[in-house]
Amino acid sequence: MDAQLKRGVLDVCVLAAIKNEDSYGYKIIKDLSPIVELSESTLYTILKRLETAGMLVVRSTEFEGRLRKYYHITPRGMQRILDFKNEWKEIMDIYSFIGKED
Amino acid sequence: MDAQLKRGVLDVCVLAAIKNEDSYGYKIIKDLSPIVELSESTLYTILKRLETAGMLVVRSTEFEGRLRKYYHITPRGMQRILDFKNEWKEIMDIYSFIGKED
DNA sequence: ATTGATACCTCGGTTTACGATGTATAGCGT
DNA sequence: ACGCTATACATCGTAAACCGAGGTATCAAT
Questions:
Q1: What is the assigned CATH class of domain A3-99?
Q2: pTM greater than 0.85 (yes/no)
């Protein structure tokens, strides 16, 4: 999928990936891979960004000798998802316009 | 609408705006404004980009003393629209994923 | 004469996806 | 013992692209 098209949706995808159950970086990538491909460098950048924005909180744990950071969505993060859904109507209007009069 | 969300769709919007009838910069902005807001600086950047990519061709004319550059879509530009429509399924999958299990 | 609409364009800032690269542990096959 | 793969984190530099601010110019209306 085109990199430009991902902008604006990747953030929300990551939030959606942790919405129902806390998750960690490596697992988020695996879970999202059937839906959207994203690299590790991109994911960790997004996670840092969302944390700074207060849309998720981090809890560092140790799992089988390896560091594992669990991410938990905040109310602000949930709101971000709702905002995106409200914006979806506009996206659909754009699609209708593009497909008009073939 | 969020600037990031526009990426990847604005190009196609501009192509769609000239798809059925040749148009010029100022008019394209007016025609698109109900669908997507975009600034002049953005539009002219996009037009130059699409021209370089061979997706449209330009014809300069004079209209009531003012310069007016008409843009005409090429087969490659039409193909770009088709490609976008094929990518739409992936976008819908993303939306389904985000809305899943509320 | 001044304002607003029409019509074009450029520059710099900011955001963001991604490849390349680095660190470290655990487990498996040879 | 050694290498490879999977797991799991992180940083850096690059390129793409939207936009505000600013610039130029014509024409109509006040």
A1: mainly alpha
A2: yes
